[in-house]
Amino acid sequence: EMSAEERAFQEKIDAEIKIEAKNWMPEAYRRTLIRQISQHAHSEIVGMLPEGNWVTRAPTFKRKLQLMAKIQDEAGHGLYLYSAMETLGADRDDEIERLHRGEVKYSSIFNYPTLNWADMGTIGWLVDGAAIVNQVALQRTSYGPYSRAMIRICKEESFHQRQGYEILLTMMREGTDEQKAMVQDSINRFWWPSLMMFGPHDSDSPHTGQSMAWKIKRHTNDELRQRFIDQTIPQLEFLGCTVPDPDLKWNEARGHYDFGEIQWEEFYQVLKGNGPCNRERLRTRKNALDEGAWVREAAMVYAKKQQQKQQQ
Ligand code: FAQ
């Protein structure tokens, strides 16, 4: 049985009116948003690490600048998303603590290593590409601050995607055989993990039903995964590369690409913390927090001194 408040809330959702921070909302709606937005923010921050690995080894000065700018954008997205999360009453430090204790998730994709320079292209093209498909849909999410964050973030994310694709295109057009092989190797490693970014099949996704009803999610995991594949395969063909999926095939009747079954066992192992880099990623984040402690303390002491001066 819905209360009058809940009914009014659902009517607003149905009428496409955004929910704002100070509006009444069901506790479960608030909790779902804190869960999703914090996971999204953590992903942006942890997502800096695989690319950070290549800043000192970028092949040219310009590539280095581009990569650094992209990584800084991701930091901005993370901070922006933490702010959106705070409008729901969650505390940033608490949520980061929970991440470091391994209690909450961040995107599975960032638990894979970056082994060659082509990975910087592949991450931009496939990982940011998948992120965009998901985030374009979230621009229409029902919670106002999250929706507005997505509009801004999508603009930068499309730039990242093109940046990544251009790295791969350059390697395929002007590269040596060895460099071309690097591109294919990179796509082979990142293809399936990129498809896993969209989450479990709809039939195995505990949150999709309620999140669709609340219009937090505007499309299901499987819908967005299919959209990503459909738009990515022509780009793959233009590159002159393949994906490691013998079942991938255009289906004229469906008007979509068919594709093989994802290794869900691998996905759930990564979610449990057993992916190739899970431990390293969390260790790096914890160290960053510990090593920055003196800066935060100094800033607090300085702020206090300034305040005391003003009171005198
Ligand atoms: N990894 O019932 P559902 C980026 C969890 S892009 C880890 O389907 P939901 C940009 C899920 O949380 C990446 N966990 O859940 C960038 C839930 O666990 P819980 C970030 C996953 O929420 C690019 C459980 O499985 N983007 O950072 C994953 O309705 C390059 C059941 O799943 C976002 O976070 C996964 N792949 O749908 C940065 C987008 N999939 O919480 C740097 C916002 C599912 O019950 C470099 N999030 N889980 O313990 C969403 O759209 C949704 O949360 C989904 C999952 C679609 C990810």
UniProtKB/TrEMBL annotation:
It comes from the Bacteria. One of its GO terms (molecular function) is phenylacetyl-CoA 1,2-epoxidase activity. Coiled coil: none annotated. One of its GO terms (cellular component) is cytosol. One of its GO terms (biological process) is phenylacetate catabolic process. PANTHER family: 1,2-PHENYLACETYL-COA EPOXIDASE, SUBUNIT A (PTHR30458:SF2), PHENYLACETIC ACID DEGRADATION PROTEIN PAA (PTHR30458). This is Ring-1,2-phenylacetyl-CoA epoxidase subunit PaaA. It comes from Allopseudospirillum japonicum. The lineage of its organism: Bacteria, Pseudomonadati, Pseudomonadota, Gammaproteobacteria, Oceanospirillales.
